[in-house]
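hey can u check if this looks right to u? its 386 residues, i copy pasted from the old doc so theres a chance i mangled smth
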Amino acid sequence: MVSKMASSTTEAQSFVVPKNERAEALRVTGLSKWFETERVLDDISFSISEGESLVLLGPSGSGKSTTLKLIAGLAEPDAGEIFIRGRHIEHLEARERNIGVIFQQYALFPRMTVADNIGFGLRIRGKNKHERKVVVDRLLELIGLSDQREKFPSQISGGQQQRVAIARALAYEPEVLLFDESFSALDPNTRVSLRREIRTLLQKLSVPALFVTHDQEEAMELGDQIAILNLGRLEQIGTPDEVYNNPQTEFVATFLGAANVIEGCWRGGLIVLDCDRYLSAQSPQAPDPTGRVKIALRPEDITLGPPTDLVNTPHHLGGGEVREVSFAGAFESVMVRLLAKGERGEGNDCKLLLKVLRTKWEARKFKLETGQRVSVGLKSYKILRG
């Protein structure tokens, strides 16, 4: 069943302007913050275009919420600049920045109706009753809650409360919307459906937005860009496709999805792995002086076949032994140990253990069990930086 909000926001889909043709809505440059002797944010820079959504993704303590607070005016940076549509704002009070913030707990007024909550910001800005009603009616229709206008927050669901919080932020036409872990308090089903609706709504209104989350799936679904933070530093920024399929560091490769990270060394145009296995590759312009290199293999990029066959992939890793098979719904997770060349029995010292993901159709076509020998192929891999 399609919700009222989803149906109302898909009635008029506008032409999507390419990113490089959109005006810049928000830019932060060299943003840094210290808490006593601890540097929690270290020289962060990024920008958001009109109508674009950027997700700050990272574990607890990575600097996500600190970045949001500095932009919102809830904390002061120790260094760096913040611009909205080209004007400096880091010296302005929070109420002067015209930024909407949607918090995790929504902060709705429990003794105000849904309509009064949405119109609260307009009332304190001096808008008269008629002006407030026009805006509130329009926003209630937009979020599909016109029939809930006289209810109190305790009388509506968590997902509906989230919509009210967003409508309240939109009421005074903010130039940027900030979402601080705004979906984490919802149950999984509501969280998935609501973030899709919010994504559609933001695209329709062309409102630039910054999301803070530690949820990888949420980041991939919400973001035109994803900025991955780790210990206060920006590890990588790019489209969901770029950061997933072209990770630059081990942290990005392992935090955004699963990855097998293994080491090798350069030798005559090859990356030589343990167990006398190798991959063909061009040496980077500035290889590590020790000759060592780290590579990331996504589990879904590894293919398994019968031990007597060469798997039809660009790279062949040789033979392997199945160590574990786990059913995971749409996928099957397999742990495979690579075999050293010429290996016939146990007692060898090959330690390369790889995680492999197979679709249920692959699993049905070629069934596996613990101890089974297989041929291991690789579709692609990524050389990591540093």
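The longest strand covers residues 315-328.
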